[in-house]
């Protein structure tokens, strides 16, 4: 296991559901049992704050931690593009992350492809949430 994954997963700054949220959604991965709930506060189609709570493996934790950190103050359009990039990456590993999202390469990379379902679970939840605000 990559030590960078452990470092990212240990950042628990946003590992708490928001009390003052606009929306939240919970999902469970039927394959491994990982479970995550994400809450966010949105205004003018921009995520102002985001938090999550999970019972999951370290890969899902790292993905959720990084996602929660990088999505603050971003527009729904940018988040939607990020989600699509992640989905495309696992279909076509030559997919490049836009410079703005390069930090995700530490987690979403070909070395971790066997943990795809764990890594994309937070993205799937966020994708479900933003559909109401497009």
Task: Kindly describe this structure.
The chain is an alpha+beta fold and 134 residues long. The protein has one domain: Alpha-Beta Complex (Sufe protein. Chain: A). 38% of the residues lie in helices and 19% in strands. Helix 1 crosses helix 2, helix 2 runs parallel beside helix 4 and helix 3 runs antiparallel to helix 4.
In short:
This protein is of the alpha+beta class and about 130 residues long. About 40% of the residues lie in helices and about 20% in strands.
Question: What are the main properties of this structure?
Answer:
alpha+beta, Sufe protein. Chain: A, 3-stranded antiparallel beta sheet, 4 helices, globular
| Parts with pLDDT < 50 across at least 5 consecutive residues | none
The coarse overall form would be globular
Intertermini distance:
37 Å
Report the structural category.
alpha+beta
Rounded to the nearest angstrom, the radius of gyration is 14 Å
Number of domains: 1
Task: Output the number of helix runs.
Answer: 4
Q: Characterize the main sheet.
A: 3 strands, antiparallel
Indicate the CATH topology: Sufe protein. Chain: A
Order of helices and strands: HEEEHHH
Architecture (CATH level 2) name: Alpha-Beta Complex
The strand count comes to 3
Q: Report the mean per-residue pLDDT as an integer.
A: 92
């Amino acid at each position: 296991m990559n030590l960078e994954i452990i470092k990212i997963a240990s950042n628990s700054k946003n590992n708490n559901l928001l009390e003052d949220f606009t929306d939240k959604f919970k999902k469970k991965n039927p394959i491994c049992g990982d479970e995550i709930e994400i809450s966010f506060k949105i205004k003018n189609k921009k995520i102002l704050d985001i938090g999550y709570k999970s019972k999951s493996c370290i890969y899902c934790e790292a993905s959720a931690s990084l996602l929660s950190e990088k999505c603050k103050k971003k527009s729904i359009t940018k988040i939607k593009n990020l989600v699509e990039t992640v989905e495309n990456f696992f279909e076509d590993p030559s997919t490049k992350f836009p410079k703005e999202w390069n930090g995700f390469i530490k987690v979403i990379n070909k070395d971790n492809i066997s943990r795809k379902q764990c890594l994309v679970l937070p993205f799937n939840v966020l994708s479900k949430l933003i559909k109401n605000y497009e």
